[in-house]
Amino acid sequence: MRTRPAARAGQYAALLAYLAFLAFPFLWLVSVAFKPARELGSLHPTWIPEHPTLANFRQAFDEQPLLHAAANSLLAAAGAAVVAVVVATPTAYVMARRRTRITRAVSGWVVVSQAFPFVLVIIPLFLVLKNLRLIDSLPGLVLVYVVWALPFALWMLVGHVRAVPVELEEAAAIDGAGRLRTLVSVTAPLLAPGIAVTGLFAFVTAWNEFFFALVLLKSARKQTLPVVLTHFIGAEGVADLGPLAAAASLATLPSLVVFAIVQRRITGGVLAGAVKS
After folding, report:
1. For residue 174, what is the enclosing H or E element?
2. Residues contacting 29, CB < 8 A, separation 6+
3. How far is 101 from 250, CA to CA, in rounded Å?
4. CA dist 265 → 190, 191, 195 (Å)
5. What is the crossing angle of helices 253-262 and 66-97, to 10°?
6. What is the band of 86 on the pLDDT scale with cuts at 50, 70, 90?
7. Are 88 and 153 in contact (CB under 8 A)?
8. How confident is the model at residue 195 (pLDDT cuts 50, 70, 90)?
9. What is the DSSP string of 16-74?
């Protein structure tokens, strides 16, 4: 009993250290974004800017089309999240409820596909999109993001479907509901936390993705925000640190806002009391 307070204090200390480790890059990024050029070149950097300024933000918006690039990223990320959830939900339901050779093969593909690096698949994807005339287009980029997010989305939703009691679906079948009606009216509402997490994963992955957008998008007006951020780095690799930090700090806000909205759905106990014992 005497060791419990010490153990709990150690746990809290470890948690605070972990949170500080995670927050350090973002806090330093925000600090740099508000520093004038003189402080950025100082040999003794400080956490809090001595003379905070918005000049870096103004320069970032003057030099690059950040709002247009953010709109492109938002369309691509939101489209990928919606399509991934719509496709993955019924597929995960079939994989969880019907154990056949096909579903086992799909499960194996889900696991194996996660081992493929980006470089290995970019050439086949480029050729496929070229034949479909989707190169240098946001729909083509959304299609790539959906394909890349589907394996993890299926793996995540299958576990949530298996957590839904089969008795609920059997009761719905007794009342005359078909498979589609059962999925929409009974199972899908109970999958809300899993669907929210899946949509969040697909959105954040697409919002932060850089490699596919760099290769598949050629027009300046169609480039996404991660690609535009590279324009703050000169030809010799010298970064315009202040505007880059300002633009990068703004680029992180949508992910934080989406997570703050969706996290309310990520709660336990959704199935509590759904089935009487």
Report:
1. helix 166-174
2. 245, 248, 249, 252
3. 47
4. 11, 10, 9
5. 40
6. very high
7. yes
8. confident
9. HHHHHHHHHHHHHHHHHHT--HHHHT-SS--SS-SS--SHHHHHHHHHS-HHHHHHHHH
